[in-house]
Specification:
Elements (H helix, E strand, L loop, with lengths): L7 H24 L16 H7 L2 H34 L4 H11 L2 H14 L6 H25 L3 H9 L4 H30 L2 H6 L7 H9 L5 H24 L1 H5 L1
Helix pairs in contact: 1-11, 2-11, 3-6, 3-8, 3-10, 4-6, 6-8, 7-8, 8-11
Protein name: ABC transporter permease
Family: Belongs to the binding-protein-dependent transport system permease family. CysTW subfamily.
InterPro entries: Bact_Polyamine_Transport, MetI-like, MetI-like_sf
């Protein structure tokens, strides 16, 4: 009889890896409620660091910029990524997947430097527009993957039946393909939003003066000191990200497995 239970060594290794990944996050969350400016020891429970965030204009401005940039970037990447996913699934061009999915495999710092040089050559001012264009460029591939995965699991006979019954290509897409694709499209949109609102490296190279995002603002705060206020804003950003990832896994678990 085959024993499918994992060995103790493998189980211990997995536990240690997950502890290494999540214990620092738990420490950040816990010390965001610490009633002390120092992260050296626990003094007592307090909400005052979150209350300070509400009245911190720099944090609120950066959070607003991040939200607007993430929404616009996700919307543009969703439209373009859906079209790219359809083209990758139905097209026969071997170069198309490499072109669409290339930014996913490239290092963020390489993408950031390349986009910075391109914006300078094209005389595009660095600011919210340049950040949005940069975020769209690396989010398209993730949306395309989600849509392509959904297309691979679709029953193509439904579309063929609609065409046989007299539906035009647009009608078959709007009434058959699009509703079936919607879980993959929504999953791709949520993934693009999460990647955009969390991005630091590419944003660092493409942001101009006065266009700070929340990750950039957190970085500027950390350079001075890791205060409980930094822990509080990091906790809120972590909560938003985990919520979106959970929602993404509920909508389209197949996308995350592939």
């Amino acid at each position: 009889m085959v024993n499918n239970r994992p060995s103790k060594a493998l189980l211990c290794t997995g536990v240690l890896v997950y502890l290494f990944l999540y214990v620092p996050l738990i420490v950040v969350v816990v010390f965001s409620f610490n009633d002390s400016k120092l992260n050296a020891e626990w003094v007592g429970f307090t909400w005052k660091w979150y209350e300070k965030l509400i009245h911190n204009e720099d944090i609120l401005r950066a959070a607003g910029n991040s939200l607007i940039i993430a929404i616009v970037s996700a919307a543009m990447a969703t439209v373009l990524g859906t079209l790219a996913g359809l083209a990758m699934y139905r097209g026969r061009q071997k170069w198309l997947p490499a072109l669409v999915l290339g930014p996913i495999a490239m290092p963020d710092i390489l993408i950031g430097v390349s986009l910075l040089l391109m914006f300078i050559l094209l005389n595009i001012s660095l600011g919210s527009v340049s950040i949005i264009l940069a975020h769209v460029s690396f989010c398209i591939g993730f949306v395309a993957l989600a849509v392509q995965s959904r297309l691979a699991g679709m029953d193509q006979s439904l579309i063929e039946a609609a065409r046989d019954l007299g539906a035009s290509p647009w009608q078959s897409f709007r009434l058959i393909s699009l509703p079936l694709l919607m879980p993959g499209i929504i999953a791709g949109a949520l993934m693009a939003f999460t990647l955009s609102i969390d991005d630091f490296v590419i944003t660092f190279f493409t942001a101009g003066v006065g266009s700070s995002t929340l990750p950039l603002e957190i970085y500027s705060m950390v350079k001075i000191a890791v205060t409980p206020e930094v822990n509080a804003v990091s906790t809120l950003l972590m909560l938003v990200t985990l919520t979106l990832i959970t929602l993404l896994s509920k909508i389209s678990p197949a996308v995350l497995r592939q």
